[in-house]
Specification:
Layout lengths: L1 E9 L5 H17 L3 E17 L2 E13 L4 H10 L3 E9 L2 H45 L1
Antiparallel strand pairs: 1-3, 1-4, 2-3
């Protein structure tokens, strides 16, 4: 199994739910062909360098995964069929140096994905602490 990275650009005209469904379908294509997804990086809506099919923006999503080399042709074929994708690029990491870089990128993407979840938890804790202090102050008066 080799390491790969896919950058896909999804049409901006889709709703948030449709974009997530499209991303899930892309990941399903990878896993159904024997791939193991290591990390995901949702880069969000960005402006394109040039218009693609009258679209000046696109939703960027990066997927790091491992799969047998024979499955790449099927994965790319299914990406070409998908009309929700404006563009995609598949990058193969082959040498030891490239594999080390792939591992670092995958770890960075995982940390980035976990960071908002931990921030949300700390915000919830801060809100709860503020609520408790407000109740304590109100009862003290």
């Amino acid at each position: 199994m080799r390491n790969y990275e896919n950058l896909v650009i999804v049409k901006p005209t889709l709703t948030a739910e449709e974009i997530q469904a499209s991303i899930a379908a892309i990941e399903e294509v990878i896993t159904s062909n024997g791939g193991e997804i290591a990390a995901r990086d949702a880069m969000g809506m960005r402006k394109l360098a040039y218009p693609i099919g009258k679209n000046e923006r696109g939703y960027f999503h990066v997927i790091y995964y491992s799969v047998a080399p024979s499955a790449i042709s099927e994965i790319e074929r299914r990406f070409r069929i998908n009309e929700d994708l404006l563009r995609f690029v598949t990058i193969k990491y082959d040498t030891n140096r490239e594999i080390a870089a792939w591992n670092q990128l995958a770890q960075k993407a995982n940390k980035k994905a976990l960071a908002p979840a931990t921030e949300a938890k700390t915000e919830d804790v801060e809100v709860a602490v503020e609520a408790v202090t407000e109740v304590a102050e109100a009862s003290a008066e």
